[in-house]
TrEMBL record:
Gene assigned in the entry: galE
Pathway, per record: Carbohydrate metabolism; galactose metabolism
Catalytic reactions of this protein: UDP-alpha-D-glucose = UDP-alpha-D-galactose
Pfam short name (any one): Epimerase
Family: Belongs to the NAD(P)-dependent epimerase/dehydratase family.
GO molecular-function terms, A-Z: UDP-glucose 4-epimerase activity
Cofactors, names only: NAD(+)
Alphabetical UniProt keywords: Carbohydrate metabolism, Isomerase, NAD
Domain NAD-dependent epimerase/dehydratase: 3-251
Organism of provenance: Kineococcus endophyticus
UniProt name for this protein: UDP-glucose 4-epimerase
EC code: 5.1.3.2
Amino acid sequence: MSVLVTGGAGYIGSHVVRLLQQRGTDVVVVDDLSNGRTERVGDAPVVEVDLGTDAATPALARAFAEHDVDAVIHFAARKQVGESVAQPARYWSQNVGGMANLLQAMETAGVGKLVFSSSAATYGAPSTPVVREDGPAEPINPYGQTKLVGEWMTRAAGVAWGLRAANLRYFNVAGAGWDDLGDSAVMNLIPIVFSALDAGQAPAVFGDDYPTPDGTCIRDYVHVLDLAQAHLAALDHLATDDRPYDTFNVGTGTGASVLEVLAEVRAVTGVDVDPVVNARRAGDPPQLVADVSRITGTLGWSATKSLRDIVTSAWEAWRR
Ligand code: WQD
């Protein structure tokens, strides 16, 4: 038996691959290597294919059969909000089309368990201080829309042919579980700030006039290793018969503002981080924090690492 991990050579996927390997599970990785790197997955076999293309179906069928695959963890997707606004068709084709190819191949091969990377972007700009899975999901960009559709697709496959799925809605993932698996893309706040520090530039704060205590946006930062552990908990949960929910927030339940993150960066790096305040970034909700009671109560998972752990591990990996 093995677990097939799509996007397993990427930042989050490679953390899950390593945890699976550590607990003795055989892993096969499917990745188009557009952002992924094979050196991240150890000795796991890598099938190089883009799930959004026609080549995906035969490649998956072969991988399922050759490796006796019992479950899939599906990360492979495009994940940049701004890019999704500029190129919506590409996001629908890649994220939804890739998911359709995957589900079709799973049904054909009789692979019946799936953990799906969903996103807090499915909530859009919520009006509540914390968000619950049973509250409104009104994504405000094509990226979040494709993730919400992905959740609908897993549910429909459950009805149609008995797929057992868990949709994990990630909040703001950062940090590194191992120095060689850090987030090498400069797309999110913490790596953006590190990159600015390296360049001797002032990091930018996107707006300080939000209705929050210090005026900057509040997010729920979750350590990538905690998030990776949530995938193992979800996978184990799919093996049980009692599965009351299929969608879970994965966050800490505690928010931090942009200025609080910068204060942590200052404390960890010793560099005097003196930001400039820019205009608000379009589409940023003032606050996005997870209610974690469902995942804690149902999967028995909760985050163990602090914002300090996140920034410290991210910085160590970044330095490397
Ligand atoms: C965090 C905060 C910015 C850069 C995105 C996706 C979301 C999820 C996580 C996966 C915001 C502020 C940022 C900068 C800043 N991904 N900021 N200066 O937008 O909360 O979430 O990643 O599913 O779906 O939307 O993350 O890291 O871009 O921003 O002030 O230079 O930092 O305004 O408040 P975001 P982020």
